Amino acid sequence: MQRPEILFQIEAHRSIDCDCACGTPYPASSTSPPPLSGMWQARQPALTQSIERGAWRAYYVPTATTPVTVMNAAAQRLWSALSEPRSVAELASLFDLPRTDVEAPLATMARVGLIRPWEAVEIAPPLEPQPTTLTAWLYLTQQCNLRCPYCYVPHRNASMDEATARAAIAKLTEMTKRHGYRRIKIKYAGGEPTLRFDLIRTIQSALTEQSRAAGLEAESVVLTNGTTWNEERLDFIAEHGIHMAISLDGGAEAHNRLRAFPNGRSSYEKVLWTIEKALERGIEITLSLTITAWNLDGVSDVVRLAMEKALPFNLNFVRERQPQPWVPEAEALAQALHSAFRVMEQHIATYPHPLTASFDRARFDFPHTHTCAAGRDYIAILPDGRIAPCHMETANPLSTIEATDPLAEVRRRSKATFAPAVDELPDCATCPWRYACGGGCPLLRGTEAHRRYCRIYRRFYPELIRLEGLRLLYRHRKSPFSID
Ligand code: SF4
Ligand code: SF4
């Protein structure tokens, strides 16, 4: 019998620094093989995708700890046999194999969650690991040097002062400890946060000092338009291990349609310069593309650039409750995504990053019941120290850094919007994608934008699984010519 092979990538959580409250990276499957005594049963997939390379198939198993895997024909047979509960000995006898030949693939299946002990009651919704990170979006300033027409930030002369910044870090450290997280993650945001680079330096040093003293890990990312950087600022970022999420909305033409300088001059070349210089310094970058009705022709260009430079990327669907004028028609969006997916496929053989966290807010790298961490493990701190549950909700701050426990207050007061799990949402409760999708942005639910995006999600998620399967095959060096 052919040797059963199961391909997967556990370290999928390398920071995809989205410009949102990205799902908290959770520890994935354990590395130690589980004991294989007793009976085992297969978890059922939502989807299998042929990846047109011999008999290899990609599987999406919603409740598995590593939901996307690829199996060859032998592994598929073994796994199918477990649609009925069986022990290792029974399986070995069924396939007339030595017990040891069955044990290794079964241990892998158990490790990634493709199978579960028969005695265990299937947990639905899946048990989410305890979040380990408290994330804070810090609005350093509401000013910006660009005037992107879809921007939701009022370009006011409001900037954080140093005392507020220090108080915010002190309060975050205290809340992180109080609520049992291990790590603080800061998102330097605006407006354009680098207009207050002085504050980034101050906060970064306060963060390092206070998190160390409290025995916490700390991580930070600058969400930037990429147009204000010089060598010295990049050196600072590299030296302090700060990541960058750089907005790029297309090739030169599409990007400048939305992100030119206010005098009409192109900003595209400066953004590319920043990317190059950051890469030279080994800074971790995520490219962040906001997809609107106005830059659909630029989606594949950003994907091509990201894949050629081996950069993680995130395709963000514009968040607007009113579809006009920014939310694309579903068919137009689908056409743009088809082109982008073709580009992904052309580059898939050498692309090192999982695609599992690249498609809007979906995450296929761990099962979860909420789209984002807003209102639970995430807060947005405004320049004056007031606190909102999400950076899109700054008009409705719910607490302040002076409160005793702002996180508890934000959770309590935003419960109706953010607390419901996907299984409690009438439109999503039976959707096969719910533990990857989470139900879409909570702020858009019930809107026409949400309905359009949901149609797109269901249309493209299977294709994403197929491409990720293909990527896994290449990653494990299975060239199309050597695959049986
Ligand atoms: S938003 Fe759509 S795709 Fe996502 S879980 Fe709900 S029904 Fe499924
Ligand atoms: S509520 Fe929507 S905009 Fe806010 S963090 Fe969640 S997904 Fe992002």
Largest sheet, spatial ordering of strands: 13-12-11-10-9-8-14-15-16
Instruction: Classify the secondary structure makeup into a structural class.
Output: alpha/beta
Strand content: 5-15%
CATH topology tier name of the domain at 133-283 and 376-406: TIM Barrel
The low-pLDDT segments are: 480-484
CATH architecture title of the domain at 133-283 and 376-406: Alpha-Beta Barrel
Task: Give Rg in angstroms.
Answer: 23 Å
What's the β-strand tally? 16
The CATH class of the domain at 133-283 and 376-406 is identified as Alpha Beta
Helix content: 25-40%
Shape field:
globular
Put simply, the count of helices is: 14
Write the CATH homologous superfamily of the domain at 133-283 and 376-406: Aldolase class I
- Main sheet? 9 strands, mixed
Mean pLDDT, as a whole number?
A: 91
Separation, N- and C-terminal Cα atoms = 13 Å
Bound molecules: iron/sulfur cluster
Element-by-element helix/strand order: EEEEEHEHHEEHEHEHEHHEHEHEEEHHHH
Would you give an account of this structure?
Strand 14 (378-381) and strand 15 form a beta hairpin. Helix 4 (162-178) packs parallel to helix 5 (197-214). It contains 14 helices and 16 strands. It is α/β, with parallel strands linked by helices and 484 residues long. The protein starts with 5 loop residues before the first strand and ends in a 9-residue tail after the last helix. Among the domains are: 6-126 and 467-475, no CATH class; 133-283 and 376-406, TIM Barrel. It has a nine-stranded mixed beta sheet with strand order 13-12-11-10-9-8-14-15-16. Residues 480-484 have low confidence and may be disordered. The chain binds iron/sulfur cluster (2 copies). One iron/sulfur cluster binds next to loops.
